[in-house]
Amino acid sequence: MEVIIQPDAHSASVLAARHIAAILRRQPTATLGLATGSSPLALYAELIRLHREEGLSFQHVTTFNLDEYLGLPPSHSSSYHTFMWQNLFRHINVNPARVFIPSGKVEASDLDKYCARYEEEIRKAGGIDLQVLGIGGNGHIGFNEPGSSLSSRTRIKTLAPQTMEDNRRHFDANDPVPLHVITMGIGTILEAGEICLLGFGEKKAQAVAAAVEGPLSSYVPASALQLHQKAVVYLDEAAASHLHHSEYYHWVHRNKPDEH
Ligand code: GLP
After folding, report:
1. For 4, 156, 182, 202, which has the most beta carbons within 10 A of its beta carbon?
2. How far apart are the C-alpha atoms of 2 and 44, rounded to whole Å?
3. What is the pLDDT of residue 258?
4. Strand partners for 232
5. Pairing mode, if any, of strands 155-158 and 180-183?
6. Is 191 exposed, middle or buried (0-12, 13-18, 19+ CB in 10 A)?
């Protein structure tokens, strides 16, 4: 795992956006795995800026989102469909036919088939070239809560009480946070060619330290990234504050060999 620590979320997100832009310029038909939540907001803002000001094109890009709340129609104000269109898709030239987000309105009896089809679509697109991830306060990635199988695939999950509490702020006061979700599995995520995890703020410090420096454990789903050959973790100082080896990560970052 490569750990990049920047003074703030904005500068870390700009670095991550530059990396994604380099991939898209090299490979305009790349497939991106995308995440929701507050963590990728600055990254998306920078991608939008690169599109508007520097001509970065998403015309031939395919995107797959990690997850969605079950029970929410795409038009719901707290759905991840709404989040993605508001915060990224409507500001760039992505082809709506190449945007994949799990549906929140799948009948229970169709779920297994639906999830298998989502995996099939990823395969048909040639796999995910780069997957963007946030990290939950309890170490989850996507909605793979603690205890998720490290080889899990897209499926239904029950949210942990802490996640429901953490995500309550994204819902109207009288709107309940859904209990069930569809999420790509940890096995699905690990098949991406590259992974870019964003972690910002003191609230993430413990989960980040457990994921990066703790033992590999299904109780810290993000620790599964230790198995990945190209996982980069972008942090601000606050999220890095519980790491024991920050100096070393800075050293490696300063002395990185030139890319070839
Ligand atoms: C949700 C999403 C995750 C995200 C997490 C952290 O649970 N399903 O993909 O990483 O929230 O959210 P935030 O970035 O808002 O802290």
Report:
1. 182
2. 21
3. 82
4. 2, 196
5. antiparallel
6. middle
Which residue in the list 51, 81, 140, 228 is annotated as catalytic? Answer: 140
Give me the DSSP letters along 109-165. Answer: GGHHHHHHHHHHHHHHTT--SEEEE---TTS-BTTB-TT--TT--SEEEEPPHHHHH
What are the tokens at 139? 């170490």
What CA–CA distance (Å, rounded) separates 111 from 54?
41
Q: Is the CB of 67 under 6 A from ligand 1?
A: yes
**Ligand 1 pocket, residue 39 CB under 6 Å:** yes
CB proximity list for 146: less than 8 A, separation 6 or greater: 138, 139, 140, 160, 218, 219, 220, 221
> What is the CB-side half-sphere exposure of residue 20 using CA atoms within 13 A?
31
Q: Rounded to an integer, what distance in angstroms lies between the CA atom of residue 60 and that of residue 248?
A: 39
Could you tell me the distance, in angstroms and rounded to a whole number, from the CA of residue 142 to the centre of ligand 1? 7
Express each pLDDT in 83-113 by its tens digit. Answer: 999 999 999 999 999 999 999 999 999 999 9
134 Cα–ligand 1 center, Å: 5
Q: CA–CA separation, 237 vs 94, rounded Å?
A: 33
